[in-house]
Amino acid sequence: MNIPHHRRLATLVALGFSAALAQGAPQAPAPDSPEAKQARLAWFKEAKFGLFIHWGLYAIPAGEWKGKHVPGIGEWIMNRAKIPVAEYEQLAKQWNPVKFDPDAWVQMAQDAGMKYIVITSKHHDGFALFDSKVTKWDVVDATPFKRDILKELSAACQKHGMPLGFYYSQAQDWHEPGGAGNDWDFGPDLGPDGKERKDYDAYLRGKAEPQVRELLTGYGPVALIWFDTPRMMTPERARRFSDLVRSLQPKTLIDGRLGAAGDYVSTGDNVIPAQVQNEAWEVPATINHTWGFRRDDQDWKSPGEVTFKLVDIVSKGGNYLLNVGPTAEGVIPQGSQETLRTVGRWLKVNGEAVYGTGPTPWGDELGEPSAKGTKDLRGNPLALPHNEWRVTTRPGKLYFIFFQEPRAPFELPPMKNAVKRAYRLADAEPVEVKVENGRPQLVVARPIRDPMATVVVVEIEGDKVER
Ligand code: JFZ
Questions:
Q1: If you measure from the C-alpha of residue 432 to the centroid of ligand 1, how many angstroms do you get, rounded to a whole number?
Q2: Neighbouring residues of 68: CB distance < 8 A, sequence distance ≥ 6
Q3: I need a surface site. Which of 148, 175, 181, 371 has the fewest CB within 10 A?
Q4: pLDDT tens digits for 414-453?
Q5: CATH code for residues 5-353
Q6: Ligand 1 centroid – CA 302 distance (Å)
Q7: Nearest CA residue ID for atom 13, ligand 1
Q8: In this predicted model, what pLDDT tens digit does every residue of 214-244 receive, in sequence order?
């Protein structure tokens, strides 16, 4: 047989291909498979610390409506003050955040040691911060500013190598008759019979689903979609969103508030679980007491508090998504920036104890359950947290993070592994290890305290702690 060379090659390639198929050659795993989910989560588990940004028209009233103080979280002002759609729409004409500087925002997140950003693409007020083709209720069509904020932020993030995700309120949309949540213009979501009285699917198919499609097609790689408040989200409706995400960007993560299982668990706002969680998880948290900017809330968490929460969360296997609420001018409030930058300086020195680390092999140091049966306001068993120290892990290494000067010497928690050596992470200064009754102790020279927290690295025999 005399087959021309190029044909022969093609035949061989074709044969090889069918042989590979017959042997079940590696194919991309189905998006719902545990393998695909773990692969999607790899960057997220490494990242640990993200910046949440709640920004929208609510930054203009900033907690005040017609001269009256409106209590509650800033981005809920339309709901709390029962502002009719037609009146709320007038805010768009004032939206002109001339100080918006996407590069500066991304730079600030990097200075803070944050490894991803999630911004409100559309909050419950229905207003899109991007140029949506399915509605005029967006920043390009309805405001004098006319700039596609998400496009600019996405470009800045790509330039700096910063993963960007979008919060999207899929269920509540107070601007639309078919969206959930606006009972002051459109009546209640449910009738007295408990049945839906709005054309919810018309809203989903006409606005929410096409907008999620827009976000996943026009804004570069989307690290995650952060769905929220899944009212009326039947499994079938949630499925339409997850199918959309998976088909357009299979690497995009879905948070825990779609209304069906996402890629990871989102805890309640500001709720840090008491113990290690085995599934990937994230705490969405405020740096003051609101998500959207409020002029009257300048009560910023201190750098020490944020550092403790970050390390506490990481030692329990989670991520910390910490929020800022920029002003209507486009400025991230100075006080929140100062806290974040101070945390970032600590992370520059001590980040090895945080990024990509595993959780504590113990857990007794986290706290203890209070008297039997006591529950907190949310009905979770009440725990009495301990906050002297936390520990994170890498193969062969333990990072002891001290928030208070340890009693010297500090007895290591029980493990069979021998200790090879110990040293301070900040300056590599050796820490003496003394064995008493078979238990290694760190002889920590005083004072060891960083004003934030001091990390002592303990190198052990073997990859992980054997108890
Ligand atoms: C939601 C929003 O309503 C709020 O405006 C903000 O965007 C926040 C991040 O998410 O509020 C929630 C949602 C879920 C819980 C609490 C507040 N929860 O599960 O405890």
A1: 47
A2: 81
A3: 371
A4: 999 999 999 999 999 999 999 998 899 999 877 777 889 9
A5: 3.20.20.80
A6: 23
A7: 229
A8: 999 999 999 999 999 999 999 999 999 999 9
